[in-house]
Amino acid sequence: MEWLGINAGLGLAILGAALAVFLGGTGSSIGVGIAGQTSAGIMSEDPEKFGKLLLLQALPGTQGVYGLLIGFWILIRLTGVEVVTVDQGWQLLFACLPAAINGLMSGIWQGKVSAAAMNIIVKHPDASGKALILPAMVETYAIFGLLASLLLTNRVVF
Amino acid sequence: MAVARMRKVHIIAHLSRKAELVATLQEWSVLQLAVVPQKERHQKSQTSATVVSASESEAAQADIGRALAYLRRFDDYKEGLIDSFMGLKAGVSPELDEQIRAGFDGRAAAQQTREYDKRLTEIASERRQLQAEQSALLAWSSLSVRLKAELSGTVNISFGTVAQKDMNAFLQRLDTQCQGLFHLEQVKVASNKVNVAVVYHASVSPAVIKEAMFTPTTLSTGEETPAEALSAVFHKLQALDAETQAITAASVLLVRDKLKLQVLYDHYGSLLQRERAAAGTQDTRQTFWLEGWTDADTEARLTELLAQRFPEVYVRFDDPQPNEKPPIKLKNVQLARPFELVTNMYGWPMYTEVDPTMALAPFFGLFFALALGDAGYGLLVLAACWWFMRKYKPDAVSSKFFHLFIISGVISVVVGFAVNGFFGNLLDYVPIEFVRQIRRSLVIINPMTNPMGMMVFSIALGVVHILLGICLKAFMTWKSGDKLGALLDQGSWLFLLSSLVLLAVTSSVQGLSSYASLTQYASVLGAVLVVLTQGRSAKGILGKFGLGLYALYGGVGYFSDALSYTRLMALGMASAVIAMVINTIAMRMMMPIPVVGWIGALLLLVGGHLFNLLLSGLGCFVHSARLQFVEFFTKFFEGGGVPFKPFRRESKFTVVRG
């Protein structure tokens, strides 16, 4: 791994953190974007639904937060560490991937489900509670990705 | 933990008492009326005559509704985000309600607004017309001839436009066709077009002029010059503006009567309800027969009330027949009642089912607290609920929502300290050793240093939750009379799952390893039991065995269910880490710059923690609910009941309360 440079370990770790933030954030921006378009469409007809629509639009936003969280988690783990070996770097990089990739995919799909669930709010305002649960089913997998990444990064020994 | 026992009520009385009885029942609000479908009615029963008069209240309500819709255009008060979210209604004292209904002529006010509305629409269309006229006249304003009057009869006048590039050709053709008998006035040149007025001898036909590349314009030809006509139009527009202003001012004044109109709207609504209820009874020539539902606890009170007020009325209470589906009323202890909201998000239990509210209440609160994982945020939730309840004074139904969060908030405070969370690690920055010591002494599991421990705890909680679900199913099956089914179906699974739990405990806890082999045998026995019992419904030995094996395979579902509870730990850690990051950044910001740094740090702390609370709080609520619906309810609960809706004054805008 010499071609990567002397401090390759640190670089790999940072790459992992960056990937988590970047992919999670991308998933969320797409998801929140999809949901936002739908809510804007609904609000052009019925602006009073703002509150409920906002909640649904916010739901696919968590993947970005989880990604950011893993990024910070790596940062916290690295504070005070003098040298990150290439091995540790790879370990941290891979440990970040569940949160990153799960975040990307689930963010997009959660956005789609959120947008669809907004129709429930339009047609059956009383069932808004149920509409909140459907997108949360997708989020489960982002949470599991986050969980795996948290536990895996914790296993890396310095 | 129960679905209230319901009683079917039959009331039979003389027709003359119907209106009063229905009104009184609406006031008591204890009875849900069962409207008997037309085809199921007794043949000799008559359709009520009151159906016709229902239109009176309906028309009044519609009138006032339109008036309110009209007045909303002039209302400065805009409904806030929270108002629209809560659907809050204005509180009105009974005296005020009475006073408004007696002293305020709502339909006159409605009539007034209708006239205003009609006039405003007319003004708008008049204005459009005048504006069109105005823009047409503007192009001719420099023409000084009177549009019509000055013609002596020997000449005609035509107005129109000619393209500028065609001007010369037009003049030539005009000259030849009119043989010089014309006068042309160029009025205005604009965007390559020239407005012209052509005066020509009466012997020349207007069609000839038109042929010469001339696009005619019709002006509202009057007795005045275009400039005079313009100023007349302008004055008319001004008059319309003044009238609009006057109507707007009068309408703004009428907005003061909004509450009165709303009271009347709801009053007519409740009259309409009564009329509809009265129309739903089965009538003979002299009597009517009203059917309804009430819960068994209310039976005695209703009987007594009726005996006092309507002693001549016949009342009978029946238990629901097997083919009837009584409406569902939940009956829970005070502390569990707010959690009915969670149950109702999923649905209502059937009459024969168990109400899951009591079972889910402690778990919901605990899940919420674990997923939030922060005592400070718990306190914020409590403060927010306290503020909302004080400010908005919500009614009983909306209060449930806040009570739910108050209970969950209290649990969050306790659990938050136990998992080492108070606005993340904010207390670590307090320079008093004593405070930090207290905080440390309260911690039971710190998920930051011991994430595995927290995860195991989450799963353990989940296992208890799932086992409770299976127990409830067993209870229901037992109660329905299928005692063998309860023992074999749920019993075998309970045995297998609890053996597996014990196996996991004995093989991981040091001191208990001697029991490990015992629990292994028990687990194998459990698996055999499941295979032997679960295929009962299939035909033939092989079929039974195969179905049993398949059922055992289905047990994988229990594992994935249990693992699903790890989300509690992940959500808790997520909010804790974000809180920690906010604190770290804020503290770093505070150090280098004296005053500005402190302000910035404070803003960051307040904003950051609020943001984290909102986002985590939403997730906590949604995922705590999901664990109930997907992991817990699937074990025993079907739902599909119809809620009990007593006949009472349903209102859109106002609530009458003392």
Category from helices, strands and their pairing of chain A: mainly alpha
* Derived structural class of chain B: alpha+beta
Main sheet makeup of chain A: none
Mean pLDDT over the residues of chain A: 90
Please report the distance between the alpha carbons of the first and last residues of chain B. Answer: 32 Å
End-to-end Cα distance of chain A, whole Å, is 19 Å
Overall form of chain A:
elongated
User: How much is the radius of gyration of chain A in Å?
Assistant: 19 Å
Unreliable stretches covering 5 or more consecutive residues of chain B: none
CATH superfamily of chain A: lithium bound rotor ring of v- atpase
> Over the alpha carbons, how many angstroms does the gyration radius of chain B reach?
40 Å
The residue-averaged pLDDT of chain B reads 86
Number of individual domains of chain A = 1
The amount of beta strand of chain B, in percent, is: 5-15%
Q: How many individual domains of chain B?
A: 4
**Which CATH-level-2 architecture of chain A?**
Up-down Bundle
- In DSSP terms (H or I, runs of 4 or more residues), the helix count of chain B works out at 22
Q: Could you state the oligomeric state of the chains shown?
A: heterodimer
Describe this structure in words.
The complex is a heterodimer of chains A (158) and B (658). With 158 residues, chain A is mainly alpha-helical. Chain A has one domain: Four Helix Bundle (Hemerythrin (Met), subunit A) (Up-down Bundle). Chain A is built from five helices and no strands. In chain A, helix 2 (50-58) packs antiparallel against helix 4 and helix 4 packs antiparallel against helix 5 (128-155). The two termini of chain A are 19 Å apart. Chain B has 658 residues and is of the alpha+beta class. Chain B folds into four domains: 1-45 and 282-327, Alpha-Beta Plaits (2-Layer Sandwich), CATH 3.30.70; 49-136 and 227-279, no CATH class; 148-218, Alpha-Beta Plaits (2-Layer Sandwich); 334-636, no CATH class. Helix content of chain B is 61%, strand content 10%. Chain B has helices at 18-28, 50-72, 81-86, 94-103, 106-138, 167-178, 206-211, 226-254, 258-279, 296-309, 340-346, 357-372, 375-392, 396-418, 433-442, 451-479, 483-508, 516-534, 541-554, 556-564, 566-590, 595-636; strands at 2-3, 6-14, 32-33, 90-92, 155-163, 182-190, 193-201, 215-216, 282-283, 287-295, 314-318, 330-331, 654-656. In chain B, the strands form four sheets. In chain B, strands 2, 3, 9, 10 and 11 form a five-stranded antiparallel sheet that branches. In chain B, strands 6-7-5-8 form a four-stranded antiparallel sheet. Chain B is extended and about 130 Å long. The interface between A and B is medium-sized, with 32 and 33 residues.
